[in-house]
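TICKET: design request
STATUS: open
ATTACHED STRUCTURE:
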């Protein structure tokens, strides 16, 4: 499979998505475009892992953020169609809630939360740009009021009259993260987002990290293919992508090249980030 050059990446790519939204101002801008309202400054963590107990599966968030009102946001880029997406959102919600409360804390202290999947496909086949889900009583239609909200965005939507134009512009830019696309839409916020993305694409450090990551993924994919381990190839690639992104975030960029040559070091780093 021919890989894109670093400068050709769009926000649909997990590497560029995490790198862009790691910037707090960019993440705030994206959250505001998704929700259609101001949210204020946010604090951001990318590739954040939450482990409830070693005997249970953990969840890894692409981008996890919270604002000054303690509202939390889980932002996920989703390219491949997955039938389990609704239950995956449920699991993300459960893991978020389980880590927020300390022993003795009141349930009322649980913050408002938004889980957002940005999909390059229509997850529910209704041609909507945005699907918003909250807990609602079947008998009365009244919202439960538990503070949770799950949003699924669809870059292939068609209901232009039902959503803000800014959201449509954002979803279009996700798939075509270029200056030409930003200028075509004549949207100041998309221009601002593009400035951030363009600056990242000029980063030699990020480009080198991306190239190193791709080399590792290609090597591991070739090994898995030779052994006929299709499932292992997919899981291994996702795991190494998560590891590289985590190391970049923590400033271990210079050590990324060691992952391919030093098996013991690679195992240690997978253990460090709970990815083994």
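STATUS: resolved
RESOLUTION: sequence designed for all positions
ATTACHED SEQUENCE:
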């Amino acid at each position: 499979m021919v890989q894109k050059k670093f400068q050709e990446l769009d926000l649909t790519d997990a590497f560029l998505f995490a790198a862009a939204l790691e910037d707090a101002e960019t993440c705030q801008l994206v959250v505001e475009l998704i929700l259609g309202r101001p949210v204020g400054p946010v604090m951001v963590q990318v590739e954040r892992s939450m482990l409830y107990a070693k005997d249970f599966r953990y969840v890894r968030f692409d981008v996890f953020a919270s604002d000054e009102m303690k509202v939390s946001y889980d932002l996920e880029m989703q390219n491949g169609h997955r039938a389990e997406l609704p239950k995956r959102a449920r699991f993300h919600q459960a893991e978020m809630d389980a880590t927020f409360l300390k022993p003795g804390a009141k349930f009322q202290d649980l913050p408002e939360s938004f889980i957002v999947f940005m999909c390059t496909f229509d997850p529910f086949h209704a041609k909507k740009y945005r699907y918003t889900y909250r807990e609602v009583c079947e008998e009365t239609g009244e919202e439960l009021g538990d503070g949770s909200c799950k949003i699924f965005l669809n870059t292939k939507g068609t209901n232009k009259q039902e959503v803000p134009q800014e959201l449509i512009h954002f979803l279009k830019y996700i798939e075509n993260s270029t200056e030409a696309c930003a200028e075509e839409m004549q949207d100041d916020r998309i221009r601002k987002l593009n400035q951030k993305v363009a600056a990242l694409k000029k980063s030699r450090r990020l480009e080198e990290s991306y190239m190193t990551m791709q080399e590792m993924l290609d090597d591991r994919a070739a090994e898995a293919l030779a052994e006929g381990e299709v499932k292992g190839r997919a899981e291994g690639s996702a795991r190494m992508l998560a590891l590289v992104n985590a190391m970049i975030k923590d400033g271990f960029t210079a050590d990324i090249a060691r992952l391919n040559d030093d098996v013991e070091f690679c195992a240690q780093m997978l253990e460090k980030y709970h990815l083994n």
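CLOSING REMARK: The first strand starts at residue 42 and ends at 50. The chain has two domains: 6-201, 204-272.
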